[in-house]
Amino acid sequence: MMKFRARILSQPNFCIQIIFIIISITSIASISFLFSISFPLFISFRFPSSDGQKNLTKDENNPTKIAVCLVGGARRFELTGPSIVDRVLRAYPNADLFLNSPLDSNSYKLFLLNEAPRIAAVKIFRPQPIPETQAALRVLTSSGSPNGVQGLLQYFNLVEGCLTMIKAHQEKHNFTYDWIIRSRVDGYWSEPLDIKSFDHGKYTVPIGSSYKGLNDRFGAGSYNTSLIALSRLSLIPQLDSTGLTRLNSESAFKAQLTTNKVNFTTTNIPFCILSDRKYNFRPTEYNVPVASISSKGPLNGAKCRPCMAACNNSCAARVMNRLHIWWSRIRLDASELELCDGHGDWEKGWEILFDKVAGKKYASIREKIWGLDMGQCIYGLEKMRKKAAYWDAPEAQEICKMGLERL
Fold first, then answer.
1. Residue 302 is inside which H or E element, if any?
2. N or C: lower Cβ tally within 10 Å for the chain?
3. Rounded to the nearest 10 degrees, how much is the dihedral formed by the CA atoms of 19, 25, 30, 36?
4. Which ranges of 182-324 would DSSP assign to H, the alpha helix?
5. Residue 112 carries which DSSP code?
6. pLDDT in tens, the chain (407 residues)
7. Sheet of 271-274: strands edge to edge?
8. H-helix or E-strand containing 267?
């Protein structure tokens, strides 16, 4: 043994190698320790595991693939857009945004989506009449639709157009989304979207405002369930073949799912649809209630506006009891619900009421949009175009000119 040690020590190169290995191991350990205290570990969360559910993990190595589909016109987007960015898109920063919106004088406001973490596809298109086939005229009803059957077809086209963009993106990049979340551009979100309890095996929609069908102002599900839920135009012939007639948007939506054996569930979703439409006050039976955005609980896609409450507490309870539960009733405790007098235009001073509820940050964004000049508008849209993986829209100058010249 002594001879062996002596032989090792007599070889200087071997000794140097041993010393170098010891120093290297010590250095790596030190660096690892310093790194661990300098940079926080990735915080992961998991969705509850159960039959039919899919675990979602914020994991850099295996992120859940989520698509967020936004559809509709941008009329009040200076009010709704910031809440969508903060409480939907930033709530799931690995999600890809898909926007399908008709070109109008408010489209320039859509550049607020620049703040989205990821933009996969944007389509801002000139709307064209959609053929009203005999099948569509049999299956759908114009009752309750401000633009008749054509209005329903335009809405269905928006939804299915978003699905088309999602399919193209998947095919190009050779993957399939785990979740597809579909919402509207005119939705104001009072709290962050939380899908941890959503069942991957069922299509999830908001509770209430069902109009004899299913609330179709928001939906979330797997790719397979979303494939049925978002095919609003393509499935009209199938509904016609089953003999269904005179369906509104919500009842047609429910029929799509049930006919194709897609299970669905309802839950509370903290958003409402900012609407300029006028509705009877106080609503009864088949009327549409208009909630104040200052209501305390989740409004589940009900129509809303900023207003001084014209009816709350016991008054709100009486109104809700008069509305059919399978029609327009808002499923919210009367102590939390505030109703507007929605028979006229938005009341004078609504801006102050909105700012009080939404806060200084959103108030500042609203004011900046109202004070926007042409150069700022073009810059914002061009920035958004460069951020998007796919862009199909008129030139930024045309979009901005259409909106700003009317002001």
1. strand 302-305
2. N
3. 170
4. 223-229, 236-241, 249-259, 314-322
5. G
6. 433 333 433 444 444 343 333 334 344 333 333 333 332 322 222 222 333 334 454 455 567 899 999 999 999 999 999 999 999 999 999 999 999 999 999 999 999 999 999 999 999 999 999 999 999 999 999 988 989 999 999 999 999 999 999 999 999 999 999 999 999 999 999 999 999 889 999 999 999 999 999 999 999 999 999 999 999 999 999 999 999 999 999 999 999 999 999 999 999 999 999 999 999 998 888 899 999 999 999 999 999 999 999 999 999 999 999 998 889 999 888 899 999 999 999 999 999 999 999 999 999 999 999 999 999 999 999 999 999 999 999 999 999 999 998 76
7. 187-189, 271-274, 302-305, 291-292, 338-339, 311-312
8. strand 264-267
Q: How far apart are CA 214 and CA 28, in angstroms?
A: 59
Q: What is the torsional sign of CA 234, 237, 240, 241?
A: negative
Contact indicator for 199, 56 with CB cutoff of 8 Å: no
CA 227/CA 195 separation, integer angstroms = 19
Two structure tokens written together for 205: 């929609």
Structure tokens at 139: 């299956």
Gap between the Cα atoms of 43 and 132, Å rounded: 51
pTM for this entry: 0.84
Phi, psi for residue 126 in degrees, rounded to 5 = -80, 115
The angle at the Cα of 100, spanning 147 to 345, to the nearest 5 degrees, equals 45
Task: Check: CB of residue 23 under 8 Å from CB of residue 30.
Answer: no
- 84 within 8 A of 57, measured Cβ to Cβ: no
Residues 6+ apart with CB under 8 A from 219: 181, 182, 203, 204, 205, 226, 229, 230
For residues 254, 259, 262, 266, the Cα torsion angle rounded to the nearest 10 degrees is: 20
